[in-house]
């Protein structure tokens, strides 16, 4: 608090310094933004490993349609109401068609577990290709060296 220097001003003037509060809010916002981009939504799938595996650059998860196939051959969709619960092929087709109609530049990817039945992975690729009418990419992990 400081005293007023005007003539006749004998009272104390109370001021609140909000700069530290704003600084803390900016730090919290930055931490939230950084951690929100690293959180992966979906089920845990162990994709096969390849030497020539390359990263797919995407600004956010909204520009990718990803069907995951677990070891039991169940389908999961990253844009479903609950990405961790299996969906039928028809439900995934409906959701993917709706999303592709809104944005035709969406990348189509299939993330298959290495123990998933081969036919189910091909079914997922066929399903996405019938909706997007473009090439569907397989997600793999780089080999450990």
What can you see in these coordinates?
It contains three helices and eight strands, in the order E-E-H-E-E-E-H-E-H-E-E. It has helices at residues 19-38, 89-102, 118-132; strands at residues 2-3, 12-13, 49-50, 64-69, 75-77, 107-112, 137-138, 141-142. It has a four-stranded mixed beta sheet, with helices on one face. Strands 1-2 form a two-stranded antiparallel ribbon. The protein has a two-stranded parallel ribbon with strand order 3-8. Helix 2 (89-102) packs parallel to helix 3. The model has no long low-confidence stretch (mean pLDDT 78).
Question: Keywords for this structure?
Answer:
single chain; alpha/beta; four-stranded mixed beta sheet
A few lines on this structure:
This protein has 145 residues and is of the alpha/beta class. 34% of the residues lie in helices and 17% in strands.
In helices, the fraction of residues equals: 25-40%
Strand arrangement in the largest pleated sheet? 5-4-6-7
Instruction: Note the total helix count.
Output: 3
Rg of Cα set: 25 Å
Poorly predicted runs: none
Order of helices and strands: EEHEEEHEHEE
- What general form does the structure show? elongated
Give the tally of β-strands. Answer: 8
Measure the end-to-end span.
63 Å
Described by its quaternary structure, the protein is single chain
Mean pLDDT across every amino acid position: 78
Major beta sheet, specifics?
4 strands, mixed
